[in-house]
Write a structure and sequence with these properties.
The chain has 362 residues and is of the alpha/beta class. The protein has 12 helices and 13 strands. Helix 2 runs parallel beside helix 3 (101-111). The N and C termini lie close together (5 Å).
Amino acid sequence: MKILLIGKYPPMQGGISTKTYWLYKQLEKDGVEFQIITLNDSQYSTNEHNLAKVTVVKEKEVPWHIPETSLVDDRLINAALKVTNYFTPDLIETNYIWPFCKDALFIARTLNKPLLIRHAGSDILKFYNDQEFRDIMSIYFNQAAAIVSNISSIDLLKDICNDSGKIQCMPRYVPDPNIFKPEESDKQYDILFAGKINYLWHLKGLKLLLELIKQKGLKALFLIGGKYKDDIYKQITEKKLESRIKLNGFVKPDKMPSIYNSCKFVWCWEEEGAVEDFSNIIWEALFCNTPCIINSNASKKIKDEGITGDFSNLLYTVNAKSIMEFDFSENKRTCVDNKRLKSDLFLKYVKSNTDLYMQFGS
């Protein structure tokens, strides 16, 4: 089975990029071959990556400014066609609608190969209320051979796609328990925040988190990037928190397990109105036995995802008042590291994806 992905993948960062990275690593162990065409955006990418099997279309000044376009589509298509000179895919995949879907569709038609759309969730939510963009999404979805969705987006997808038989509701991303696992290490930081600072960053409880760090004298690690990260830098400076917060940009996915294990808690606050899909960070932190601090809205999402049972003791639901009394010295709850449960969840997730891919090749 050979897959050509045109979409988000490291060095690009984000939930769908990370999920795809870890899934492809597992598929590769099972004999699946792949090539990646992706972008490198200075605001949303790491500075380090392995170029093997990954063609990165980098930022550049084009020879002549054309006001109506950045010409990124032409460059993605050109890069993909060059790869197909030595790599013959069985399947074209894309994992984010804009800007990648039309380019993947073009390549699929050119090569007469099936197109799999594995949408991210947030890409639909951001444009769902605009009829023109719903029409555009409908064009893409109706020409795909299959569309991968999840329980939080499938109803929206069915409303857009004319052929609901193409839609595959798949298990949510589950981290590999052999990689994301508890480790004996010094807890250098009281709390971790990792994520994009985008248009709705204020819905992630960051102002509250900064005030919390200031009042309780916490030591924090921030892994952030995005369009409005300078707004956070400015607030950190104004509150004189430079010595309390270590600021880093995005890191390679492989570094995250050790980062979770270096922190006592992870901040996973999410207020109503955000368009983010269910965060990878919650699952990854839980698999490392690192507790997550959540609010009632995030708690509801977690329950909807079925994260209960052995993971419940790692979830602390708080509000803006009670968090100020929270004890950050250590996790005082007992948590059993249920390796069998983690392994079963992961293998179910991988098998569902492998079975899907095998429909398009062997």
